[in-house]
# Entry
Amino acid sequence: MRTAFFEPGKGFYIKEEQGRGLDPNEVRLKVEACGVCGSDRQVVHGESLPYGAHFPLVMGHEIAGTVSEIGEAVGDWKIGDDVIVHPFNNCGSCSACLNGLSNLCSRQRCVGFHQPGGYSEEVVVLDRQLVQRTKKVHPVEAAILTDAYATPFHALQDAGVTSGSTLLVIGTGGLGLASLQLAKALEVSLLGSVTRREEGMAMASKFGAQAAFSMKEGLRAVSRNIRRSGGSRGFDCVLDTVGTDDTLKLALDSVRIGGTVSVIGMSEASAVIPIAKQVRRGITIKFSYGSIIQDLKRVVALTEEGKLKPKELIAGTLALTQIDSAFSETRSSGRWVVLPQST
# Structure
């Protein structure tokens, strides 16, 4: 099988690998599509590396594929099944897992960082990490559901966003645009978007934002305009998909009294928060990471019902041999997807 490895200084390189044997509860997948996530970009650009990951890496954790081999103890799957992979392999016995927070498992292993991922023609994962997909969802669209959609879905559920809520989404990258689609599916009553990018305003409107704002106006000006849009009360929830000092300040200025700020952006930035002000306003700040497999199943169901349209989030597709292009080109609003079987 062809596999794309990455090492600092060498970049990506393709090698022919022999697939290993399966443990009893493992399955082998033919990888049909694998999304390029922002966390992969951070590794390639030398910004961060998940704890416990080591080079060379076979990255790629947004995987859609077909079951090609099953371990002897696998009972729920058969060869030929169309699936997507929930990338997190939790231990099931730590404090987080026992309290229903398996996405925060202290011994968590993630496909693409702690074990070989989907930038390869084949991948091996545990059978309990699989989620069924139907022919209604194309592999390219299904792949990005695993993170680009499941991560903000988990955050929105945890923040209590429901029908009738008002929501402001900061950022118009893959997570931000997916969040806007999810907000429409959840039937929020007012949906706003903030972007740093020229093209972000138009993209936000396309994805359902009723009001779009540019960070280029400056923090004070954009905060004032946002409050006017959301009414003097501000937004019930602000979802920060960027995670910098400026975006967190903007989120706190834009949320209503007693509202919730949820941060899923994973920059290496630090932030200074005016504590007394936020205490007096009763603001809840949540930092949300990843998802649980039930989130992914719900996102797949929403897509099959036609309430989510991941196709609109696809920036383009690339063969495995073209993988460099997904990281070297100017960042666009949307997700690149690698097709390992393509030549």
The domain at 160-287 is CATH 3.40.50.720 (Rossmann fold). The mean pLDDT is 91.
